[in-house]
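[Automated response] Your request has been received and processed.

Submitted sequence:
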Amino acid sequence: MRTVLAATSLLLSATPAFAHEVGFGIGFADELWSTDPWLLVPLYAAAILFLVGTWRLWRRAGSGRGIRYWQAACFWTGWSVIAIALLSPLHWLSERMLTAHMVEHEFLMVAAAPLLVLSRPPRLFFGPYR
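Generated structure:
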């Protein structure tokens, strides 16, 4: 009998546990778009490295040489998919719903990753521009 009473008291005193702060209070709309520096800094650093690398390469080798236009388009499309997946309300929703979380994963794995691989950005990030 004591065991049943102890278990019942534990069940009644339990509160919901959330992995992230959940709420729909003041500032709800401000929470939807992510401004987390751990997401923004690497995303924009990659964009700047690619932009500067493309500009330097095309200035020396000629426009469209070394990296083709379609490769640059693949990078910017992949970069945009990552930005949409990680900065938009989809990311906020993915912290609360498994379905949205898996949609975010699919954006990153099925769309962004192959586009970035096709663009071959390390060639511009770290390649010789002499």
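Summary generated for your ticket: The mean pLDDT is 81. Residues 28-126 form one domain.
If you did not submit this request, please reply to this message.
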